[in-house]
Amino acid sequence: MKIEQVFEYDIDEALETKLQNLLSSCFPQIYPSDRIYFKQLPHSRFLAFNHNNQLVGQVGLDYRVMNLGGEPVRILGIIDLCVSHQARSAGIGTSLLLKVDKFSVERNIDFILLFADHMALYEKNGYTTVENQCTWMKIDHESQTTKEIGCESLNELMVKNVGNKEWNKGTLDLLGYLY
């Protein structure tokens, strides 16, 4: 297996088709069938290819500042990590997360942040569930329009400290959309 980083603006039509097939098969009930993002394009992705050069996994990355308890924090957000059904249980998800960890070393990143429905993979890889009141911009993924500002505690929030700051229980303002 090989993992490579690709920036969103470098994705050509052939790769876009492969990504669309992977994402729609991994998220069949929720993922739009006409694009390679759910609410917003990530900045870059790590893509996993098997020995036949077939795309078998991906994780999107979004880098931005958020406000945690009144202080700015630099966040690398994980978006839509997925592995094809045929390639699951082979360590590809963990390999993608390890690639994100390695990428984060000695960069200006305080935390890696994600929202998970199934937390076991992330817990196994050092992520911690946190409970913070969150504020974010709600996007209607079908019409691709801003709906309103959301404000609630989200049980799916997980973080991994990769910088020198400590996570606190203050309000987390995502200063943008929810991954």
Automatic annotation (TrEMBL):
InterPro entries linked: Acyl_CoA_acyltransferase, GNAT_dom
Gene3D superfamilies: 3.40.630.30
A Pfam family reported for this protein in Swiss-Prot or TrEMBL: Acetyltransf_9
Domain named N-acetyltransferase: residues: 1-142
This protein's name: N-acetyltransferase domain-containing protein
Species for this entry: Paenibacillus silvae
